[in-house]
Design a protein that fits this description.
The chain is mainly alpha-helical. It is built from seven helices and two strands, in the order H-E-H-H-H-H-H-H-E. Helix 1 runs antiparallel to helix 6, helix 2 packs antiparallel against helix 4 and helix 2 runs antiparallel to helix 5. It is globular. The two termini are about 35 Å apart.
Length: about 240
């Protein structure tokens, strides 16, 4: 996937903006490369496909964990797509902020498509999202929701990594969660660019580690934004 860039910038122009954009670009490319590691890795079990607005079963084992991640990436990709498509997008965000949001959208779409390809016929269907609680014409509302999604995504990967048994899948998940953490830092910087708010004790514990959440708690937190009922009862717990 090609990442959106502003072709009008002067060559060699070094700034915070360039560093951030280059970092986001290469971080996304690294995650996309991971797809080639596991694109052919599929579990033999079948997952109940159901209907988009019906209950979907994530499945069990590594397939279930991948579907869990796929569900979250669907949510994030849908959110950033909605942000960029909003008529007021270019009025509430300046040029630099628009670039960041477009980069995040591209990354999340890449992540979503990675899991879809890796799961193959075992992938759950597209989820029906509900963003009615977000005011896409209000910058604070959009960034607040983005912070929620990114922090939740990092905690979700941190909590689910130990549930994977395939080392290649764990490697790919580790590369993706590192990108998600960079997303979270970028969003916090957009919320308060004059402070060192790229992190905080709400997401990092006293030992300096990002916090982790179990799937049940993550899905409960995400339920506000997902109409489709998700059955995660068959996911591994350890």
């Amino acid at each position: 996937m090609a990442f959106l860039e502003n072709q009008n910038e002067e060559p060699g122009f070094i700034s915070k903006r360039v560093h951030r954009r280059m970092f986001m670009k290469y971080a996304g490319a690294a995650a996309a490369t991971s797809a080639f590691l596991v694109a052919g890795c599929k579990d033999d079990e079948e997952v109940d496909k159901g209907m988009p607005d019906a209950e979907v079963d994530l499945g069990s084992g590594d397939t279930g964990v991948l579907n869990y991640a796929y569900a979250l990436e669907q949510l994030e990709a849908a959110f950033y797509t909605a942000v960029v498509a909003e008529a007021s997008f270019t009025s509430i965000f300046n040029d630099e902020e628009q670039t960041v949001m477009r980069d995040l959208m591209a990354h999340e779409i890449t992540h979503r498509e990675f899991f879809k390809a890796a799961l193959g016929t075992n992938a759950i269907p597209g989820l029906e999202v509900d963003f009615s609680s977000i005011n896409f014409a209000d910058k604070a509302s959009v960034l607040g929701a983005a912070k929620t999604f990114e922090d939740l995504g990092v905690a979700a990967y941190n909590g689910a990594g130990k549930l994977l048994t395939d080392g290649n899948l764990l490697l790919a998940a580790g590369k993706i969660v590192s990108v998600e953490a960079r997303h979270a830092a970028a969003i916090r910087d957009l919320i308060d660019p004059k402070s060192a708010s790229f992190s905080g004790d709400d997401v990092v514990d006293a030992n300096g580690f990002d916090k982790a959440m179990v799937p049940a708690d993550v899905l409960s937190a995400a339920a506000t934004y997902v109409k489709t009922k998700i059955n995660a009862s068959n996911l591994p717990t350890s």
